[in-house]
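thread: overnight batch results

M.L. [08:02]
morning all. the overnight job finished for the chain we discussed friday. pasting input first so we're all looking at the same thing
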Amino acid sequence: MEQRKAWKRVLTIVLTSTKLKKSFTFGANYLKGKDDLAIKATINKFMSTLKDTCVVEIDNLTHNEITQIIMGEFYNLQIWAGYEKGNINKVFDGGVLYLSNRLNDDKTTTLIILGASQLVAKYGQSRINLTLNSGINLYSAINFICRRAGIQNSNVSTQFKKVFLEEVMNVNDNTGTWLDKLVSSNTSYIINSDSILENTFSIFDSAVSNSRVISLKNSDILLTGGFPRLTNEGLELTLLPTFNFICGDIVKIDNSILDISVTSQQEISKNYGAYFSQKGEYMITEMIYILQNRGPSFNLKLNCKNRDRISAYIGGK
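M.L. [08:03]
and the structure it wrote out:
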């Protein structure tokens, strides 16, 4: 008889303290002889510098364990997800904004961790006061402001070396806010603060950049929630968390499996053709992870826009 392989989930939370130079790792076999912890992580990522967030809930921790985390200032947060004997990817790398606990009974409690991107958690408090003029190129300006904020690992596309600032700019914001304003002033600039690829943030021009193009087979798409759906908001599809996508990536899919059904009177007058890509190429603008090591959910939802029309959706002059 043929033996079927079972996909066993891996969901690991790593909290690191720079104060104590040590880490807490929560996942399978957290403590020898103790039942696995019940972990839930909800992660939201956007094409923005300020919006990335996550909420982690860990059940069955003792009051003593939570006290050690709080007193030790374990404020660096990583989340890893995948399957045993398969790809296990880092799906979040940021910092802790707030820790709280919910009492369950006399012996155990739930640790609730609110997290944000490194750009917000680590560098979001530093204000910068300086003036930039049209004699400096945009590439140098972004790198200079990041260095002033202590960010050494920014990923600024080299295409900006040839782009000059159009007018004198006074910078009296923190780094994330200034970058967000810069992107909103140009319809084709794209930015994300996702640190899973070892950069605090990435910025590039979608009009000329070659983004990563990931071809998805029909077998890669999770059809339990329905076929990929095309609406006036763009393309929505659900996947298993087996690949490290970032906002700005291009996903290429077979248009024949798209669901373009009309479910309400309001949708009748909407022209979905404007959101349809003839090439089947769509740029990721939002990502939502819902991960549970014990519960029913373990998936990634992508919201995407037509690659050829992406500048129409981002910012606006």
